[in-house]
Amino acid sequence: MKKLIIVLILVIPFLNTNAQGIGKLVPERPPEEFPDNAIGLDVIFSEGGIGFGTFYRHSLSKKITFFTDFSISESKDDQEVVRFDPFTLQPFTLFKKNRIFILPLNFGLQYRLFTNEIYDNLRPYINFGVGPTLVLTTPNDKEFFKAFGDAQAKYAIGGYIGFGANFGIDKSSLVGLNFRYYYIHLFDEGVEGLFDKFRKNLGGIFLTINIGFMY
C-alpha cells in the first residue's frame, strides 16, 4: 500500500490541474464530440509492483462505452517479508517459493458520469469488466527471465469494478486514470507463493494510467 500512496501523491497535483471545472455549472453549449474508438497502453501500479497492459474501447453512445483490456502484473502475498543480502546488497524475500503473475483478459462497460455538469476536459466514469485470467508461477530461486522456462499455468475467473476519468479535449490522444478492485478466484487448491501457503483469491487494488489515441 505504501507504493500506492506514493503514486497518489505524485498524481494528485496533476488531477487538481485538470479538475478546475468540477462543481461549476457549464453554460449551454454543444457537447464535445469525441471519436468512437480508442486504443492504447496501461501502466499499472499495485502491491506487486508495476505492470503493463493494453486496451480497446468503442463508444456505444455518449455515456456508454464497451471495452476490452489485457494486462500482466505480479501478485504478492501480504505476508511477504523482504530482506537484503549483507554481502551482495540484493533484496530477497523470506520463504518465497514462486513468483505469481496474473494475466487477466476482461470485457466490460464504462459509464460516463456528470455529462452536463462538468467541463469536457474532465470526463469521470465508472466501469466494470469480467473475463478469464491466466495465472503463471515461476520458481523464485531462479533468475527472473530464465525462470519462465519452468513456468506453471493455471486458469481462473475474475473481473473488476472501478472508477476513473479521462482528461483533456484533444480528440486524437487519450490520457486517463482508473482505480480498480480486481477479484480473481482459482477453483483448485490455489497457487503457492510462500512455502506451504496456497492462495485461491488473487487481485486487490490497482491504479491504472491509460495512454492511447482515439480514431
Structure description:
It is a single chain. The strands form three sheets. The chain has an eight-stranded antiparallel barrel with strand order 1-2-3-6-7-8-9-12. Strands 4-5 form a two-stranded antiparallel ribbon. A two-stranded antiparallel ribbon has the order 10-11. With 215 residues, it is mostly beta strands. The chain has one helix spanning 2-18, and strands spanning 37-46, 49-59, 64-75, 82-84, 91-93, 98-112, 122-139, 152-167, 173-185, 191-194, 197-199, 201-214. The protein is built from one helix and twelve strands. The chain starts with a helix and ends with a strand. Residues 12-23 have low confidence and may be disordered.
Write a short abstract of this structure.
By secondary structure, the chain is mainly beta.
Give the SSE map:
Layout: H1 2-18, E1 37-46, E2 49-59, E3 64-75, E4 82-84, E5 91-93, E6 98-112, E7 122-139, E8 152-167, E9 173-185, E10 191-194, E11 197-199, E12 201-214
Antiparallel strand pairs: 1-2, 1-12, 2-3, 3-6, 4-5, 6-7, 7-8, 8-9, 9-12, 10-11
Descriptive terms for the model:
eight-stranded antiparallel β-barrel; two-stranded antiparallel sheet; 1 helix; elongated
